Amino acid sequence: PAGADRDAEGAIRLGGVSTRALAAEFGTPLYVIDEEAAREAARMTLAAFRDAATRHGTDAQVYYAGKAFLSADVVRWMLAEGLRVDVCTGGELAVALGAGADPSLLGFHGNNKSMIELAAAVDAGIGSIVIDSFDEIERLGAVLDGRGVAQRVLIRVNSGVHAETHDFLATAHEDQKFGFTIADAPAAAARIREIAGLELVGLHGHIGSQIFGTSGFEESATRLVALLHEIGGLTTLNLGGGFGIAYTSADDPSPIADLADGIVAAVARACGGLGIPLPMLAFEPGRVIIGRAGVTLYEVGTIKPVSLDDGASRLYVSVDGGMSDNARTALYGAQYSARIASRASEARPQLSRVVGRHCESGDIVVDHEYLPADVAAGDVLAVPATGAYCFALASNYNYVPRPPVVAVRGGEARVIVRGESIDDLLARDVGLAARSIEGN
Ligand code: LLP
């Protein structure tokens, strides 16, 4: 909502719907997803990779990484825009299948998939499974045993590239849990090829998340192409996701078309050097598709000025959500911005910190922002760029119910995931259930 569209009362509009009306109708905190923004980002991302691949004589598939934000509607939007969907647990698989996805358009990865999850994926007829370990080769082999079906698989490779991002978000340096090392991958391929029913089609790499530049992706792609050649007989190279977005005006990620060009060109150079044709390419972006389509609305409560050492002061602006609906600030030191959404204000900017309602001081939503000094209880605050990994990482810390998700489009709003009630939470506590029965 930065230079956003506002209604007659000065309230920011999202997808043509006033944030004041959204807060009044659905309550706060509220996750709002702009359907058209998500779909447009999906289209742009697919076009960027397809166009780059086509220029180099191959094709690219884009899997939407469901871990960023998954619901039945989002699955349907992505499929309608020509994307596939990547899942990493049985739960995500159930959402995608429940939304009616053609199983052959789904991919499944993860470092510790259970026998039950693997069997569910195989039985559904999932398009591909990314094998993460020698243990998993045997597990999947056991699942296939006696089923008489073939399963397409890729090998997850840890290319050893250290992506420049938060340590918790980097996944391809040596000392971490994902994938096979480049040295082990040929033995993994050989073992997979011994097992009836496992059809090895390619390699998969993912170096991390919220990455701005192309160099890490290019280096990883180059290493994976060499490995593809060494193993031989493989048609597909999945280079994962991880493309960064702007959370605040300080962030300046490369446009997705430039990233796609750079990465595909690196694949083409590496293939050219080896004299091999380009493989079919696949990518798995989540954040770059859904991140900026989401905005969280909160209502302002307590406001407290706190004096700082340098004589300045900071407003602590408490909202009715916090680390239970957006864990990213506490977990990764993520930066967000905030605006008063329910009205326009010309008041002078005041250094502010938007904090939640949870019982710890790390419960920060927006660490550093200049809000209008007249910010007041009852104002609706909008925090943009919360579409990825906020709903997905939400918790019930302090017995706070998780907020609903509303999709907006063309002036209409509809709930796509209902909010929880305190009763939903209490219903799980067996001791409370027993007590109410005795009391009756
Ligand atoms: N593919 C694989 C194998 C992944 O592990 C991930 C993300 C993706 C694709 C999608 O990455 P994206 O395009 O969304 O960056 N909770 C963290 C992010 C964790 C990412 C985990 N894997 C956060 O809130 O920043």
UniProtKB/TrEMBL annotation:
The modification N6-(pyridoxal phosphate)lysine is found at residue 67. Keywords: Amino-acid biosynthesis, Decarboxylase, Lyase, Lysine biosynthesis, Pyridoxal phosphate. Residues 50-290 form the Orn/DAP/Arg decarboxylase 2 N-terminal domain. Pathway: Amino-acid biosynthesis; L-lysine biosynthesis via DAP pathway; L-lysine from DL-2,6-diaminopimelate: step 1/1. Its EC number is 4.1.1.20. Substrate binds at residues 287, 328, 332, 360, 389. It catalyses: meso-2,6-diaminopimelate + H(+) = L-lysine + CO2. GO terms for molecular function: diaminopimelate decarboxylase activity. Its cofactor is pyridoxal 5'-phosphate. Pyridoxal 5'-phosphate binds at residues 242, 284-287, 389. Belongs to the Orn/Lys/Arg decarboxylase class-II family. LysA subfamily. PANTHER family: DIAMINOPIMELATE DECARBOXYLASE, GROUP IV DECARBOXYLASE. Homodimer. Specifically catalyzes the decarboxylation of meso-diaminopimelate (meso-DAP) to L-lysine. This is Diaminopimelate decarboxylase. It comes from Microbacterium koreense. The lineage of its organism: Bacteria, Bacillati, Actinomycetota, Actinomycetes, Micrococcales. The gene is lysA.
